[in-house]
Design brief:
single chain, 4-stranded mixed beta sheet, alpha+beta, two-stranded antiparallel ribbon
């Protein structure tokens, strides 16, 4: 089911699916798995470039080598821009710490060194954003590596959109998110009414 909310089209899977990242179980596998790097918005490339000197100290030696030879992004079209990856699959900004993969961009930000948190596509995962005419579509991306996150989300009863409150507000604003919470309540009421019909 798809719901129109402002200039967005929302899959109700972000309401009906529970999700809480479980890094202890997945070890940050989303930073290495997949066909390509993390999707980037055009303006994010400039933000990363402006902060590269602050991000570089948190990168792995192999990531720095890739940065210096191929750069940190590839793709020509606006909807085809992604981070570069090592032959082993890791994003150029991946580092390893205690067996868990992390993001050098995020670590630099949290250390107070840079002013860019991380690409919104990473911050919003497992929600993926697409374009449909004037609308941005929000869809839940199901991935086997996130089974532990789904299990933890179910245990804690946290729907995907609530887990991603911070990045959703970052992307669409607080008013948009507050309205989304109201839409969620209406969705729950509708689902309850459907049960009563049987």
């Amino acid at each position: 089911m798809i719901i129109e909310h402002g200039d967005t089209l929302i899959s109700t899977e972000i309401f009906s699916t529970q999700f809480v990242c479980n890094l202890g179980a997945c070890k940050g596998a989303c930073c290495i798995e997949g066909d390509r790097g993390a999707p980037l918005e055009k303006e994010e490339i400039k933000r990363i470039e402006d902060n590269l000197d602050q991000i570089r100290p948190f990168m792995s030696p192999k990531g720095i080598e890739l940065l210096e030879t191929l750069g940190f992004h590839e793709g020509e079209e606006i909807d085809d821009l992604v981070t570069t990856c090592l032959p082993t699959g890791e994003c150029v900004f991946v580092y390893r710490e205690n067996g868990i993969l992390g993001c050098a961009i995020e670590k630099s930000y949290k250390a107070g060194k840079s002013d860019f948190y991380k690409p919104i596509s990473c911050h919003l995962y497992p929600i993926r954003i697409g374009k449909l005419g004037k609308f941005e579509s929000l869809n839940y991306h199901k991935w086997d590596i996130c089974k532990a996150a789904c299990a933890l989300g179910k245990e804690l009863n946290v729907p995907v959109f609530e887990f991603l409150k911070e990045p959703l507000i970052r992307k669409f604003g607080e008013a948009w998110f507050n309205d989304l919470e109201q839409i969620y309540q209406e969705f729950l009421e509708l689902e309850e009414a459907k049960k009563g019909d049987f």
